[in-house]
What does this fold into?
Amino acid sequence: MAFGKGCHLHLIDGSAFIFRAYHALPPLTRKSDGLPIGAVSGFCNMLWKYIEDAKGSDAPTHAAVIFDKGSHTFRNDLYDLYKANREEMPEELRPQIPLTREATKAFNIACEEMAGYEADDIIATLARQAREAGGRVTIISSDKDLMQLVGGGVEMFDAMKNRAIGPEEVEAKFGVGPERVIDVQALAGDSVDNIPGAPGIGVKTAALLINEYGDLETLLARAGEIKQPKRRQTLIEKADQIRLSKQLVTLDEQTPLEFTLDDLELREPEPEQLMEFLNQMEFRTLTRRVAEKFGVEPPPVIETVAAPAASSSSATKEPEPETEQVPFDPDSYVCIRDAEELAKWLDEARAKGWVAVDTETTSLDEMKAEFVGVSLSIEPGKAAYIPLGHTSGEGDLFGGAERVEGQMDLEEALSLLKPVLEDDAILKIGQNMKYDFKIFARHGIRVAPIDDTMLMSYAMFSGLHGHGMDALSDRYLNHQPIPIKELIGSGKSQITFDKVDIAKATRYAAEDADITLRLWQMFKPRLHREQVTTVYETLERPLVPVLADMEMAGVKVETAVLSRMSNAFAQKMAQLEDEIGKIAGQPFNVGSPKQLGEILFDQMGVEGGKKGKTGAYGTGADVLEDVTTMEDTNPEAAKLAARVLDWRQISKLKSTYTDALQTHVNAETGRVHTSYVISGANTGRLASTDPNLQNIPVRSEEGRRIREAFVAGPGMKIVSLDYSQIELRILAHVADLPEMREAFKEGLDIHAATASEMFDVPLEKMTPEIRRQAKAINFGVIYGISGFGLARNLRIPRAEAQGFIDRYFERFPGIRKYMDDTVAFAKEHKFVQTLFGRKIHTPDIVSKGPAAGFAKRAAINAPIQGAAADIIRRAMVRMPAAIEGLPATMLLQVHDELIFEVEEKAVDKLIDAARATMEGSAEPSVKLSVPLVVDAGQGASWAAAH
DNA sequence: AACTTCACG
DNA sequence: GACGTACGTGAAGTTC
It folds into this structure.
């Protein structure tokens, strides 16, 4: 039926329905997999009720549900702060948005949206068209922004209050008729949508003014006549802002729609289609109601395996894929070679609200990597690869290799990808997203929002297995991906990805995106079941952009300083080698523990045993140190050991630091860019690689000088802030040690205070030796103390060490309870937890033999080390906002320390802001019973800042 | 690739 | 009664 006179169009504001449903209902989840489903449930119930209610005498002939699409509209182009203070869409809600589209279609109601326009604009346009065609319109919404449309056959209906909104109701709200609503809104502004309006003028005053002058333009033209000086001044000065506001609140009645009113003709739901959807969502009640209504049998209820309340994770292979899995088919993957095809895929991503993304590049180093291709996946089995930088031939000094035909232009592809990658209504899913984030960031694209399957795995399964894609695919999808080696080879003959044939690359790269999407679909609901959603969302995921920015910033390193040190070290080493050769009676490779062992123990007759599976002599520093004490029995060996120790120290500094660091200086930036592995340590700590900047020497005077090469740029300073004794403070809190808590509150030297408590020595009579022993015990406790270990560390008899430990437990009874409770918890659950909910799995806790001992100590240590890691992660996530506007950059993290580069004049401000953020970062999640204290230092170099 | 050693918190 | 033991990392060099 063509739309015309006598027709009645119902327009449902879909977004309003969704939000109302979301906020009205408790957070329901789908039973079979834990998918959040509350908003969809509410949405369906509202639609059903609407259909039932709409059947009276005034029934609609045409109807549509209108949705917003994306968040960027033409209004953002007019005013970049439009809706800028909108809160992020709740995490639980995001995956439900596409489902509400599906629900609408299942109800057989037209479902419309339009990129670049708000739902309100589509509603305005349809209302105008219907009005002009002589029909009537009812807008199902109570949104005040739609009230400008009321009149001339258009009215609104508030479904919650069950009342119509006509011209009288609009006038009651705005003080003017519908035709002047936008004038009032332009003046009054709107804090929700961040429309500025005229400062100091609200709806009441606006209506007064409009009623007096007739309309907005007249008012602005005659603003000079206004008596109140403040009001007059505002209207004159802010006229532009008010006109802009009017533009923003005015709905676009000329939205270019791709459908007509006739397409919206109301249809009865198809019972089967509808029930299949409802059943899939596992809405039992509604499914039954619908079945009754249509007089058909409800479909069989989906068998659900109730999710266990506690964690169900185990070290064994998961039998997860219960439902039929779409088979992997590399031949089905699409190779995207032109803009039309890419646009098609991106539209599907928009419709779904998510897309898995993976990049292929020429290097593992994100700071050097060039784009070779991008792969996308929208649903399991459906993936595509966009080749962008494949080359052939060798290339030479004068020209790059030849570009392979049939590839999109990189810039063109990126310009199409950018709006999707930055659209906050489209979730970008990746495996190790920090890598892809950095590649895109270097091309001016900030990917957001994101999900990362590697980090999901880390949050759920830390301690159980690795989180690389191959391992996850094998374990959870029972699928072995194409090994990268098959494409690029290995070792010396390895090639870069751009040299890979496009057809092969498509099969490999698209598969990665496919796997990532499948893993995500499996992991997302499981985060809830494992109760680590908050950990993932507050401690893992938000770290991705923060770390990416730190890594991209890099730290300035003076190669000249390092080079000078290298030369000095080389000289010293040669000298020592010479001496060592003379003592040994023959030259040998000092760097070879095997040769050294044979010379020391076989030729020079030092008493000492073999160890290790290989049967080689142990020649570690502790062994050699023992040998140096044999001046009386074997003076030659003692001397040799001492020289070797010196040589080893210098060799280490040279090869690992002064030499290697220089090779890591990026040619373009002149700085060193480390890479942090978020899932690197089981406890929640980060790991730093390529190069590792978390183990730059500091303990020895010689080594510490390497930090002099880590410098600030001109006019800048290096600032270092570190948590003081954070692990002991956490121990004092979690193990409930009142004496230690008090010591921290009083700001005492904690090791001295411990010594005083243990050995009954007053603080003023403390000796360095007693304090040293107490310090060793304090650390021992954190590591899961044993008499043997403490004895070795302090080089005292085992019985004496055990005596210390007994005494410690006696004085701090909370310690023993903490240890016992933690181990018992680990045995029961096979994991331990930090204060912030991070889980660290300890499957070996039940094994027999030495592994059990390791697992036990790891279980004792993990909640402490892990909580400290959580605390600094929280600080890092908050840091960008905390130091916003300051000329400062966060550069490095070293477990309990954050390092910044700051303009000299802002050093004090930076320290204040960063310290406050760090000291307060446990809150509000955890209120510690001990204060967190942060020490700060500054200087031209890292050495000076420490 | 495994092992040893040693740098850091 | 014996066995092995501090917790968490990454990199370089040697050996197999």
Q: What stands out?
A: Chain A has 37 helices and 25 strands.
